[in-house]
Design a protein that fits this description.
Strand order of the largest sheet: 2-3-1-4-5
Oligomer: single chain
Distance between the termini: 22 Å
Helix content: 25-40%
Strand content: 25-35%
Radius of gyration: 17 Å
Structural class: alpha+beta
């Protein structure tokens, strides 16, 4: 069984010491989906929602969220992010949300990418909840990661 790195020998939660790890280029891509009715999607795309441009606001929220990940997830390291790109695109049944995060450092950016997608999806929900409270945020997942000791991984 794999030993979880965020617990010490006594089973207490701890932040992993990455000071001895080499700084390498690391990138992660995550995705999620906000499912909604065709009418709500049409409203969002029309730009006539009361709160403004749904896609633009959600993309900006995702970027901010990636930068704040260490403030939200207790054992995450604060990272100097080199790139955060969030995309909210119309798709069949709602909005597909993707985040790509990149850094050069001693630890990966998977959590930053997942946090960016999560908050972007929640922002879409917030922007459109007056039109439809039954929207579903779903399919949040890591798509790929590169760099680091564990190497590359793709879903």
């Amino acid at each position: 069984m794999t030993r979880l790195s965020h617990f010490d020998e006594a089973g207490r939660a701890r932040m992993v010491d990455v000071s001895g790890k080499a700084a390498t280029v690391r990138e992660a891509v995550a995705e999620g989906f906000v499912r909604m009715s065709p009418a709500t999607l049409a409203l969002a795309l029309s730009g006539e929602g009361r709160k403004g441009d749904v896609r633009a606001v959600a993309e900006i929220a995702g970027v901010i969220a990636a930068k704040k990940t260490a403030d939200l997830i207790p054992m995450c390291h604060p990272l100097a992010l080199a790139k955060v790109e969030v995309s909210v695109e119309p798709a069949d049944g709602g909005f597909a949300v993707t985040a790509r995060v990149k850094t050069t450092g001693p630890t990966g950016v998977e959590m930053e990418a997942l946090t960016a997608v999560s908050v972007a999806c929640l922002t879409v929900y917030d922007m459109l909840k007056a039109a439809e409270k039954g929207m579903v945020v779903e399919a949040l997942r890591l798509v790929s990661k590169t760099g680091g000791k564990s190497g590359d991984w793709t879903a």
